[in-house]
From TrEMBL:
It comes from the Bacteria. Pfam families: Bac_rhamnosid6H, Glyco_hydro_78_N. GO terms for biological process: carbohydrate metabolic process. This is Bacterial alpha-L-rhamnosidase. Residues 40-177 form the Glycosyl hydrolase family 78 alpha-rhamnosidase N-terminal domain. It comes from Spiroplasma chinense. Signal peptide: none annotated.
């Protein structure tokens, strides 16, 4: 099911002061030249995982010996996931070329993307995200410097045309990797000895670095832009690893620089050629802005920053409050894209959203008290009391000992996780709920590392570290077993090719909302 919004004649409010502040953080990205490490000849299916794996590996020194004729290809492996610009020198062997060469380049984060045929793509998000280029070569050798930045580990070159008189080969190839973070900056774990956890942390860290570009991108292959829900989790992980405060501030200012006409913050933002909020508003993402400022304050105790954003925070409180109407709860289905929570079309989101309201409004109260905004704090407290009352009366099912959502009284992980996070009940009861949900294994599953992040948070906050580590190893660990160099946007261990977009070829395989292991390991276990 397609999930997008189009608003006709959309006219965002611009805030030039916020924009100038955001711009003051602009800086050059760090660069590093990466050379390939091996050649892959052909792919085959691994029967146990149903995923593609290399058929044969060839040393990189032999790259120039591989002369390709029409309909042949070469796969170049850079050994790990990088984000940057490619340089390729293509030469010929044989007679003087009597016709242009015609090649296709395919850039892939994981091997399976190479095997997918983009001409069969029928998903509902744009085909433009598939990383491919078609190039004519009129004169050999030709040095190709791709302008477009790509996210890749693998580069496949298909020869679409030569002539009977000559063959094509790759003489040189390299990648200029880019990141907001210096490539030398590699924060190490101090205490953790468990090898699986060390590996999870490493992959999480790489995921974060590769998506830290001119903004916190959700994924450097797709959507290559700033999303609010993603930003919060990236910033949190960053505090415990690279600890770069500038990019977080830059992104907070950017979101505040272009808003919806009612002052609500958009779910995501374009920064180029000009900063403009997208015409998508997700109620949970607007609310999560509050928590992103709260987290920043908790980490830095920078009261000045809270002051600067207080008005924006209260705008989010007011617009989201209006959204609730008389009942002080939502009652919406998934026919429109009004909230996110997770990429699970079966999910009834209403209970979970109520949990997001209470959680984030509590963060707002905390900040109101920090600033001494007593009237705002009192006002927020009244709202929270009402929301909590409504939550208990409408979503709590005493008999089952779980929260349920919607007319069908749906049981999901999501409703229970968010209600636990909202602190409606005490820790003892929260533990019971979390244990029960693990035992019940609801049919409505978590489909993204984003949703899993909040599951881990609920477990860690309620003193259930053992269960959290088990889940971390099961979920993120399984991605590593399947060959992940960076963590993926979407993953269901029981349905590993899951995609809400109509095809997993457009899934992002370096998606920074999935760095949870790095955050939780460093925050709770590496002390
Ligand atoms: C997708 C992206 C992004 C997320 C939104 C809701 O487009 O994966 O990360 O925040 O969905």
């Amino acid at each position: 099911m397609a999930s997008f919004t189009i608003i006709e004649n959309f006219e965002p409010i611009k805030d030039s002061k916020m924009l100038d502040k955001a711009k003051s953080f602009n800086r050059e990205l760090f660069k590093k030249t990466v050379n390939p490490c091996r050649i892959i000849k052909g792919l085959k299916i691994d029967e146990s995982t149903k995923r593609y794996v290399p058929n044969e590996l060839i040393e990189i020194e032999k790259m120039k010996d591989i002369k390709l004729q029409q309909d042949e290809n070469i796969i170049i492996d850079f050994g790990n996931h990088f984000v940057g610009k490619l340089k390729i020198k293509i030469a010929h062997s044989g007679s003087h070329p009597d016709a242009p060469g015609f090649i296709k380049l395919k850039m892939a984060e994981i091997i399976d993307e190479l095997a997918a045929d983009s001409s069969n793509y029928e998903g509902w998000i744009s085909k433009g995200w598939i990383q491919e280029e078609w190039i004519h070569i009129d004169e050999f050798p030709m040095e190709i410097k791709l302008d477009r930045r790509y996210a890749l580990r693998y580069l496949q070159l298909d020869v679409l045309a030569t002539s009977a008189k000559y063959k094509i080969y790759v003489e040189e190839v390299s990648l200029e990797a880019e990141s907001w973070i210096d490539f030398k900056d590699n924060p190490q774990l101090k205490k953790v000895q468990d090898k699986e956890l060390i590996e999870l942390d490493k992959v999480g860290l790489r995921t974060l670095r590769n998506s830290m570009q001119n903004v916190y991108e959700d994924g450097p292959k797709r959507d290559r832009r700033l999303w609010l829900g993603d930003l919060r989790l990236q910033a949190l992980t960053n505090y415990y690893s690279f600890n770069d405060l500038e990019l977080v501030k830059k992104c907070l200012y950017l979101f505040s620089a272009s808003k919806f006409p009612n002052k609500s913050l958009g779910a995501c933002l374009f920064v180029s050629p000009e900063v403009q909020v997208d015409d998508t508003n997700l109620i949970d993402y607007s609310l999560i802005f509050i928590s992103t400022v709260y987290d920043y304050y908790e980490h830095t105790k920078d009261i000045e920053l809270v002051k600067e954003f207080w008005e924006v925070i209260m705008d989010q409180v007011n617009t989201t409050w209006e959204f609730l109407g008389e009942q002080k709860m939502t009652n919406l289905n998934n026919d429109t894209f009004w909230s996110f929570i997770d990429w699970n079309p079966e999910l009834d989101k209403n209970a979970a959203i109520q949990g997001v309201y209470i959680t984030t409004y509590k963060h707002a109260i905390y900040l109101a008290n920090v600033l001494g905004k007593n009237t705002d704090a009192k006002n927020l407290e009244e709202k929270i009391n009402l929301l909590s009352e409504v939550a208990k009366n409408n979503y709590w099912d005493e008999k089952q000992g779980l929260f349920v959502s919607g007319d069908q009284k749906q049981i999901s992980y999501h409703s229970n996780i968010w209600m636990v996070l909202s602190g409606l009940f005490d820790q003892e009861k929260n533990k019971k709920i979390l244990k029960k949900i693990i035992e019940v294994k609801p049919a409505i599953k978590l489909k993204t590392p984003y949703a899993y992040h909040y599951f881990l948070e609920a477990l860690f906050l309620n003193d259930m570290q053992e269960e959290a580590v088990k889940i971390m190893k099961y979920y993120w660990g399984e991605m590593i077993k399947l060959g992940a160099d960076t963590f993926w946007e979407l993953f269901d261990p029981e349905d590993p090719f899951y995609s809400p977009y109509g095809s997993s070829i457009v899934n992002s395989y370096c998606h920074a909302w999935s760095c949870a292991p790095t955050y939780f390991i460093r925050k709770y276990m590496d002390k």
